[in-house]
């Protein structure tokens, strides 16, 4: 017999939800589940012996939540050298990875992309046009520099189970005709960025270093960090770019052991890619759901740490929709579909 622990009644409607959702997460879940029930199926899926509304039944195929008109191109991409690895919960209606595809792929395939991108907050100021001859028609997902250095990648941290990557990579030419790259991390319902795997690791026998030593101390002696001990190049790259990380944020110990860890690693990836010389400039942004303020604390601390350096920026999915609404008519059908699923 299946025992359902997380049954909740919201506005007279029953939902089967995870038990530890914040109010903001719950609002996102309920909206997307309502859309799923209306447009796909009312059936629930299973996880660890429990039913959940946000999970599709076991026989559901991955493209179920992907915007229909882009599926042929999505399938082409998945046969290319820039196929991305599906997340464990890609069959989840509230999958951030799938939501990322639904937000960016139609936009990046649009003939008007060169007009739209510069209007997005955080778009590099020197953007001229998307580089259609690079990556997969100018972009790809889950990018870790696989076209530059195979194996463990530029940070020596890439494997089947680990590694730093950007949810979206957009190759573009700047106003001087030089090749550049814009990396974007996408968040849908997450209440925090990924915390430090080295700090969590059971193999790390020196966890006190993480709370005892600060950024400068670890930069001078990177062997204090377990990431460095296992060969990851994070601190090597940071040391060459230490002038960027000069802000004061009032965190004791390593500032990257908690929510700032993912922001830092993505920034370090951007810096390492830029150092290869393939790209003239590499910047990094976060795109999050406009109704979620849960990430603001970490974003603001990270901005303070880098003293507001323009190599990092953030924007919301609603920012993108507002720009498309003003500038493009070919994307209106997609925009209405996306709003039905993710906008409330």
Structure explained in plain terms:
The mean pLDDT is 95. The two termini are 36 Å apart. With 344 residues, the protein is α+β, with helices and mostly antiparallel strands. It is 34% helix and 15% strand. Strands 5, 6, 7, 8, 9 and 10 form a 6-stranded mixed sheet that branches. It has a two-stranded antiparallel sheet with strand order 1-2. The protein has a two-stranded antiparallel sheet with strand order 3-4. The protein has helices at 23-39, 71-78, 96-109, 113-116, 197-200, 208-212, 215-220, 226-229, 234-240, 260-275, 296-305, 317-327, 332-342; strands at residues 7-10, 13-16, 45-47, 50-52, 127-130, 139-143, 166-174, 179-187, 282-288, 312-316.
Largest β sheet strand count, sense and barrel closure: 6 strands, mixed
Contiguous helical run count: 13
| Rg of Cα set | 21 Å
Shape: globular
**Helix-residue proportion:** 25-40%
Q: Low-confidence segments, ≥5 residues, pLDDT <50?
A: none
Number of strands: 10
Q: How big a fraction of the residues is strand?
A: 15-25%
Compute the average pLDDT: 95
The oligomeric state of the chains shown is single chain
Order of helices and strands: EEHEEHHHEEEEHHHHHHEHEHH
Q: Which structural class do you get from the secondary structure elements?
A: alpha+beta
First-last Cα distance: 36 Å
